[in-house]
Design a protein that fits this description.
This protein is α/β, with parallel strands linked by helices. It contains 18 helices and 23 strands. Strand 22 and strand 23 form a beta hairpin.
Length: about 550
């Protein structure tokens, strides 16, 4: 019987007996008990300049290894080129050698990257003394299995290849670079299973790449909300990095990439609507309650005034229908709830909006009318008889003047046109950057980090979404209107009740933009400043003199 696996003299076959010396028995026991010693003594790696060398661990790498051994959940934030992958591969090698019947998984944004990490484990394995090896059962590009029952799988993060396995060790490599859609799928279908094991080790390591799931995990770890131990090491921790190296990286990467990949700052994309320095300081809250697709951050308070802004989609699991609830009783305004659902049909959405609006003191609602938004607004008004709908007025095409009362069309919401979006984005930027609007929701902050200037407008980067951000843009437009800024001395609810006795709808006097409208509406105000001392709540208690 051959003693080597597939005629590879560096791999021991299953069932090959080993005659241990006393010294080898003691050494085996020491390696099993001390991962750092095993790696420093027996693991070899390939250095980019020096070829195959012994793995001489740096101090920060020793810290990482010992944390991996002692803790079940570890998240590591590292600059680029710090030896993160090699360090993790060495730990995997120790783990599968000295732990029986363990199924381990390496997950990356691409299967090829996960297999590259597995190849480093295999290379180090082949250079171990045969008396330290387990017999090889399987030795493939995407998996290896040993005679002690332990194995390692390499797959993409969302891969179904690990579904169904009882995993003992999971490594998420460069998790900040996993696309949001893939990460969402992973956390929905796979992560709950692997995190349910009391002894399962989950290791996450990455360089920051925006305000995404890795950012959320990191912040939750720092705030001690998810059980992960956070480890961060600056680029200076690497003894081979000096000032000259740093200067070269800055020159090659540019300021934004340098701050992200070397300084490990959490930044959004470049050219975001909200300045990167502001985005990095936004702090999301944990919802006090989740009701299906609704995150609630503050319960309604009696006497407070709330506004809901809603962006509607077709519910075909592509773009999501979304709405945000804002408390505008006092400045700074606050996002107190958020709803987001990519599969809800427009037919069912009005009931949800109405229910939430009623709970929040019959909140005032502004709906974007583009596409299927009109259907939702009409259902809210006619079927559910929800009264507190913002309405806008748009000129008929060519400004046609007909009989009194018909020369403008009343819209039960707002058409999102270029001028409206421009005003909404500009005012939203002012509100957030001057801390006049507080955003509590993580997904909202994440979308803001990829809401960038593209040509003459702002929209989501390719592959991302801006459904929630557009609810903020609607609020930004609303808060810019003169109705909110210039009037006082009248209780808005009594005013609306009085007007409603004479009409079957509530017009708030805003004049929006209809599609194909040639004449610019008269009262949209380009001046986006909210007067000092004024809040939206103040002016909602006032009656516009032209009404």
């Amino acid at each position: 019987m051959s003693e080597s696996y597939l005629n590879n003299p560096n791999l021991k076959c299953v069932g090959v007996p080993v005659a241990f010396t006393r010294e080898q028995v003691e050494e085996y026991q020491r390696c099993a008990a001390d991962c750092e010693y095993f790696i420093s003594t027996y693991v070899k790696i390939v250095h980019v300049d020096r070829g195959l060398i012994a793995f001489d661990l740096f101090e920060f790498q020793k810290h990482i290894i010992n944390s991996f051994v002692k803790e079940n959940k570890v998240i590591v934030r590292l600059p680029r080129q710090m030896g993160k992958t090699t360090t993790t591969a060495a730990f995997f090698l120790w783990y599968i050698l000295f732990h029986d019947n363990k199924v381990c998984a390496i997950l990356a944004n691409k299967a090829a990257i996960a297999r590259e990490i597995l190849s480093r484990i295999k290379l180090s394995y082949e250079h171990l003394p045969l008396w330290l090896q387990q017999g090889v059962v399987e030795w493939n590009k995407g998996s290896i299995a040993l005679e002690n029952g332990s194995r390692v799988l390499a797959a993409a993060t969302s891969s179904s290849g690990i579904r169904g396995y009882s995993l003992s060790l999971v490594f998420l490599d460069e998790f900040a670079h996993v696309h949001n859609n893939i990460a969402d799928e992973f956390f929905t279908s796979i992560f709950p299973t692997i995190s349910s094991g009391k002894e399962t080790k989950i290791l996450i390591a990455s360089t920051p790449n925006g305000l995404n799931h890795f950012y959320k995990f990191w912040i939750d770890a720092e705030e001690k909300r998810n059980g992960f131990l956070p480890l961060a090491f600056p680029w200076q921790s690497h003894p081979e990095r000096d000032h000259d190296w740093m200067e070269k990286q800055l020159q090659v990467l540019g300021d934004v990439k340098f701050r992200q990949e070397v300084l490990c700052d959490f930044l959004g994309s470049s050219d975001t609507l909200i300045a990167g320095s502001v985005l990095s300081k936004l702090v999301y809250h944990v919802p006090i309650r989740k009701e299906q697709h609704l995150n609630i951050y503050e319960d309604p308070i009696e006497g407070h005034t709330y506004i809901i802004t809603c962006d509607v989609s077709h519910g075909l699991d592509q773009d999501a229908s979304a709405f945000s609830v804002f408390d505008i009783t006092a400045m700074p305004y606050r996002q107190v709830a958020k709803y987001q659902n990519a599969t809800i049909p427009p037919l069912l959405l009005p009931t949800i909006i109405s229910t939430v609006g009623t709970n929040y003191n019959r909140a005032f609602i502004l709906i974007e009318l583009n596409d299927v938004g009109t259907q939702v607004a009409e259902s809210l008004h006619h079927d559910l008889e929800y009264e507190n709908l913002f309405r806008t007025e748009g000129f008929l095409q060519n400004g046609t003047k007909v009989s009194s009362g018909f020369k403008r069309r009343v819209l039960m919401g707002l058409r999102m046109t270029e001028p409206v979006k421009r005003i909404g984005c500009s005012n939203l930027k002012t509100l957030i950057e001057r801390e006049k609007l507080l955003i509590h929701d993580f997904e909202t902050i994440s979308e803001l980090s990829t809401f960038t200037q593209q040509g003459n407008t702002y929209k989501a980067d390719e592959g991302y979404h801006d459904d929630i951000v557009m609810t903020l843009v609607l609020f930004g437009w609303l808060a810019s209107q003169r109705y909110f800024r210039d009037n006082h001395n009248t209780d808005i609810r009594r005013t609306l009740e009085s007007e409603n006795e004479n009409t079957d709808w509530l017009s708030f006097g805003f004049r929006g933009h209809e599609e194909h409208i040639e004449d610019e509406p008269e009262v949209i105000d380009e001046d986006l400043w909210i007067p000092v001392g004024k809040t939206v709540h103040d002016v909602l208690e006032d009656k516009y003199s032209n009404l």
